[in-house]
Amino acid sequence: MSFKVLVSDPLAEEGIAILKGFCDVDEKADLSEDELVKIIGQYDALIVRSGTQVTARIIEAADNMKYIGRAGVGVDNIDCDAATKKGIIVSNAPEGNTLAATEHTVAMMMALARNIPQASASLKKGEWKRSKFMGNEMNGKTLGVVGFGRIGREVAKRAQALQMTVIAYDPFIPAEVGAAMGVEMMSVAELFTKADVITVHTPLIPSTTHMVNKDSIATMRDGVRIINCARGGIIDEAALYDAVVSGKIAGAALDVFEEEPPTSSPLLTLDKVIVTPHLGASTVEAQKNVAISVAQQCIEVLKGGSARSAVNAPLIAPEIRPKLEPFALLTEKMGSLAAQLADGAITEVEFAYLGEVSEMKQNLKYATRMGLKGLLDKALHEPANVVNAEFIAQQRGMTVVEKTSADAGDYKSLVEMSFKTAKGKQTISGIVTRVGPRITAINGYSMDLVPKGNVIIADHINRPGVVGPVCVLLGKYNINISNMQVGRVDVGSESLMILAVDDLVPSNVMQEVAESNGIISAKFMQL
Ligand SMILES: NC(=O)c1ccc[n+]([C@@H]2O[C@H](COP(=O)([O-])OP(=O)(O)OC[C@H]3O[C@@H](n4cnc5c(N)ncnc54)[C@H](O)[C@@H]3O)[C@@H](O)[C@H]2O)c1
Ligand SMILES: O=C(O)[C@H](O)COP(=O)(O)O
């Protein structure tokens, strides 16, 4: 089967070539939302940069879509929630353009300090105004970096090479990370009061929207310079305009804008504001990096795998994957078993990873999602997947709990899945063996069940004359039993009979099994 990929923003040739080696590729730039809605249904994957707004309407119409790739960092032009609901993996290329954006930031800072764009334009007009373009040295000045992620840190290193003092604010980065680089981390309020130059490197999210505003500008040093090569909207453009006009801010360098392109922004009329049209990632090197990254991830997803930089699916460290996959298969089977065992709606599900398996820590989220997929697939028209399983579970009123413990009793590793319905709590235990997953207990009844194929599970009283008639009954209908075991606690007590059968068991036969002497309840399951 041949997959179809739409590339709706300019993508470097190296990425296109990789995609073409695997699938059909259409390159169509500048499509409107309506045009995209019309054609998107035929594509298995979509690759964009920041030019295409991937709206909920487009995603709603993307019935064959498995993957949306962002050849760059910011996914703020993609409705990731809508993609998650539809089970579409969204990934970006987070490292590919870090250095391009870093160097652009440094270039903007130096251009701002030395009035290079203005002086260049003036000279080209035939002027020779040397005193008009007096600048400042960056040597010895304090640079305030807001957002100390990939780009923020690389900018810091280069500023230090210019002999600047670097201070930083990032609520998610420990002070030791800064200290190890000779950067003092502090509150944003303190940073604003101390910096000669402020550069922002955060995503545009509610906590960063307009974090540079009228009030925060008032706390800054007179003559501060401000740089935004991250996202339009982090700086309140109206407040910036007023502060540049008043002289409070000596100059601003902007690569990104609240509205792009910023056709009517009054900031474009100010001499002290220098601008570039969102060029931070526009280097040959960065474009090659991000194009190759998303092309490779796209192919991985279309082949049924996962994307290494997925933003809406659990990430798995590559070295962990071979160890984790068998447990994910186990939890998927446990989920499927739970869905068929449960009487009534499941309100709470818990996955407990015990023993050595618990060491995989945050990677276990993947196994949990696969468990939920197994649980939900039996109930849904469209199969769930690792992207949307947790979302769907929550939407259906299930609380999902994940636990770990180093203690697995007699096992090296054990997984216990418990689930609650109005009728109470049930628990399934399972292990991974060399030859695949095994269910070792259901509700405390020990067994060694291969979770595969057709199975009858029957609650019964463990006394003579109960198991035999069920086997005779199945024989009467020509249903072959390939494996049989009884999980019991004591003779004469309630026990669990597990019959692996080669064929589907029709409901009328299951009715007879359920009514057979000593049987309390019986269910036919497909695992
Ligand atoms: N101009 C361009 O062409 C261009 C190119 C690449 C990246 N970008 C943008 O640059 C930004 C940074 O990219 P990155 O690769 O360094 O991302 P990153 O995820 O590595 O770093 C972002 C940092 O912001 C921090 N942060 C989050 N909320 C914060 C808050 N409220 N206050 C302070 N810090 C906060 C995070 O903890 C993180 O460390 C992104 O917005 C990205 O889209 C722009
Ligand atoms: O988030 C990013 O990676 C940058 O904003 C680059 O955007 P672009 O791919 O549209 O140049």
Q: What are the SSEs and their pairings?
A:
Layout: E1 4-7, H1 13-20, E2 24-27, H2 33-39, E3 45-48, H3 56-61, E4 67-70, H4 80-85, E5 89-92, H5 98-113, H6 116-124, E6 142-146, H7 150-161, E7 165-169, H8 175-180, E8 184-185, H9 188-194, E9 197-200, H10 214-218, E10 224-228, H11 237-246, E11 249-254, E12 273-275, H12 284-302, H13 321-341, E13 348-355, H14 364-377, H15 389-395, E14 399-405, E15 413-421, E16 424-433, E17 436-442, E18 445-449, E19 454-461, H16 467-476, E20 481-487, E21 494-501, H17 507-515, E22 519-526
Parallel strand pairs: 1-2, 1-3, 3-4, 4-5, 6-7, 6-9, 7-8, 9-10, 10-11, 11-12, 13-14
Antiparallel strand pairs: 13-15, 15-16, 16-17, 17-18, 19-21, 19-22, 20-21
Bound molecules: nicotinamide-adenine-dinucleotide and 3-phosphoglyceric acid.
Nicotinamide-adenine-dinucleotide (NAD) binds next to helix 5 and helix 7.
GO molecular function, one term: phosphoglycerate dehydrogenase activity
Pathway: Amino-acid biosynthesis; L-serine biosynthesis; L-serine from 3-phospho-D-glycerate: step 1/3
Family: Belongs to the D-isomer specific 2-hydroxyacid dehydrogenase family.
Keywords:
single chain; 527 residues; alpha/beta; Rossmann fold; 60s Ribosomal Protein L30, Chain: A; 4 domains; six-stranded mixed β-sheet; 17 helices; binds nicotinamide-adenine-dinucleotide; binds 3-phosphoglyceric acid
**What's the story with the biggest beta sheet?**
7 strands, parallel
Report how far apart the termini are.
27 Å
Percent helix, as a range, is 25-40%
Computed CA radius of gyration, to the nearest angstrom:
30 Å
Family: Belongs to the D-isomer specific 2-hydroxyacid dehydrogenase family.
InterPro entries: ACT-like_dom_sf (IPR045865), ACT_dom (IPR002912), ASB_dom_sf (IPR029009), D-isomer_2_OHA_DH_cat_dom (IPR006139), D-isomer_DH_CS (IPR029753), D-isomer_DH_CS1 (IPR029752), D-isomer_DH_NAD-bd (IPR006140), NAD(P)-bd_dom_sf (IPR036291)
Pfam families: 2-Hacid_dh, 2-Hacid_dh_C, ACT, PGDH_inter
Enzyme class: oxidoreductase
